[in-house]
Amino acid sequence: MNNIYPQAQPFFLGGSQETALLFIHGFTASPSELYPTAKLIYDLCGCTLSAPLLPGHGSSPQFLKQSNWEEWYNAIEKELDFLMENYQRVFVGGLSMGGLLALHAGSLIKGLQGVISINAPVFNRFPLLTAASPLIGRIRPYYPKKDSPLLRKLEEEGRFAYNVIPARAFQSVMNLRNTVMEEVDEINLPVLLIQSLQDKSVHPRSVYYLQEKIKHTELIELHYSEHVATMGGEKEKIARAIIDFINNYS
């Protein structure tokens, strides 16, 4: 993809030759939203972290409008193939839509050690947009995000994300969500579930649904964090929970 914004670039923190974590960003965003937590994990435990940029992201919303969840997952699968060839133990995790992609990988790919899902949108707080997205996509290709001090603060701190939501691509996220809901009870890997209780995008009951359906889970609740928790005040709590999870299942 051409014209990737500097803030949206993928990153790779090369550490341990034994353990690697594939870290997946959210819808309309980029690896930049994962970096603060990823750097803490890397500094504290030294495992390798890979955070690719998903197709359609990091450039222009028109590219995202033309992409879908299968393309995003194919990119993740290729990176997991690389990591599993080169590291003894591989984990996959993600934020928001990245959490859904991580869960999907956990249901399909043999040989993974575990899955980490942070604020995965099983139930979101936009029922109108969710219900109307197929129609909106025909009438209005892009749905503007509401401006907020929080989004401006995240941008100032280095996060790159589009300021609009392509309705067609959003519908593809919902298709991914439906797929994951059908298969989560087949996940036999350990899963670390992390949920922000102040999340204004994802309803916290999402995590309790996943906890009920998945056989082997650990749950971490973030009492003070919003949706992009990996850049928030509890990012060290997230990093330490992920490190403990990796150590427990390595």
Structure report:
The protein has a single domain (6-248), classed as Rossmann fold (3-Layer(aba) Sandwich), CATH 3.40.50. The protein is built from nine helices and nine strands. It has helices spanning 35-45, 61-65, 69-86, 97-108, 127-139, 149-156, 167-183, 205-213, 235-248; strands spanning 11-13, 19-24, 48-51, 89-95, 114-118, 142-144, 164-166, 191-196, 217-222. Helix 1 links the parallel strand 2 (19-24) and strand 3. Helix 1 (35-45) crosses helix 9 (235-248) and helix 4 (97-108) crosses helix 7. It starts with 10 loop residues before the first strand and ends with a helix.
What is the element layout, followed by pairings?
Elements: E1 11-13, E2 19-24, H1 35-45, E3 48-51, H2 61-65, H3 69-86, E4 89-95, H4 97-108, E5 114-118, H5 127-139, E6 142-144, H6 149-156, E7 164-166, H7 167-183, E8 191-196, H8 205-213, E9 217-222, H9 235-248
Parallel strand pairs: 2-3, 2-4, 4-5, 5-8, 8-9
Antiparallel strand pairs: 1-3, 6-7
Helix pairs in contact: 1-9, 4-7, 5-7
